[in-house]
Amino acid sequence: MLRIGTFFTAHRISLLGLLFSLAVGLIAAGQAQAAPGQLRIGTLAPKNSLYHRQLMEVGEAWRSAQGEGAKYLVYPDGSQGGETDMARRMRIGQLQGALLSVVGLREIEPSISALQNMPLLFRSWDEVDYVREKMRPAIEKKFLDKGFVVLAWGDAGWVRFFSKEPAVRPDDYRKMKFFAWAGESEQQDIMKSLGYTPVPLETSDILPSIQTGMISAVPATPYFALASQVYATAGHMLDINWAPIVGALVVTKKSWDEMSPAARDALKAAGTRAGLQMRTQARKEVDEAVAAMKKRGLQVHTPNPEQMKEWNTLAEQLYPRIRGKMVPAETFDEVMKLLKDYRAGKR
Hints:
One of its GO terms (biological process) is transmembrane transport. It comes from Zoogloea ramigera. This protein is an alpha/beta fold. The chain has a single domain (about 30-335), classed as D-Maltodextrin-Binding Protein, domain 2 (3-Layer(aba) Sandwich), CATH 3.40.190. Helix content is about 45%, strand content about 15%. Helix 1 (about 50-65) runs antiparallel to helix 9, helix 4 (about 125-145) packs antiparallel against helix 11 and helix 7 (about 220-230) packs across helix 9. The longest helix is centred in the last third of the chain and has 35 residues, at about 260-295. The chain is globular, with a radius of gyration of 19 Å. It starts with about 35 loop residues before the first strand and ends with a helix. The model is unreliable at about 1-35 (pLDDT under 50).
């Protein structure tokens, strides 16, 4: 049915999903190769948002350590395209880094999708943190082998379902038209196989599409729904933690190797601090965003135990379809084992 961060997503929304409309056209500066001593960082995150501010702080630390001639530029608001576009731009040298959700990160290393694309699997942020920390060294090694250095891990809240009509059961959504990411044929195929109607679009199309009726439901984090004003048209939210939106700040190994040792140390330390801030503040902003939208008319629907059982049954139906298709089978099994150990107290 839904794509977990995006699968009914989201955060792709994300980074983090998540976040705002994609801009129009290429920025001229982004079309040329950067000279050594210059970092160009792309993100969907809105200008002046928590994520943008953290990226700017990372840049200040790096620029100071790198020394004279160092230039650091952040392109927010999706001005460098969608997350798959930014992954491509890093590969050809038009960007040296990006803050991405799993949507973009999986273009580099598919195993990362296990942190976001398994609906209703994680019951708390503690479980997300535990699994991520256990898997982090191996995942970062895979990124490095593919030419990317992971500087920071962040997240952007839980995916909830925003719709024009009230809905509390999985069947309620079968009559709706769901936003789905364009190009994600796997997600769309799974949704269709379960009787749902995906409408493939880009992030910039979400608001006009919900307003015109092209779509009637959007999987999104509360932060995204508030910032994009999606909730003003889709005024019903299902209070269910469908999936976490997980992301990371990465830079190309080429740009990393061109830095001075002091600059690498400063960048890594600043990235670690930024990741902690993004995780801490983003989780706080989820509740704040819901409270703000409720004051402006958002109706929140919480499933009762019987309805929640239906959602868990749906998730169980999704796992065999996700394993080996949306999430590599080996990684899927590893996450399941880690969660089993965590819940058994084997930490």
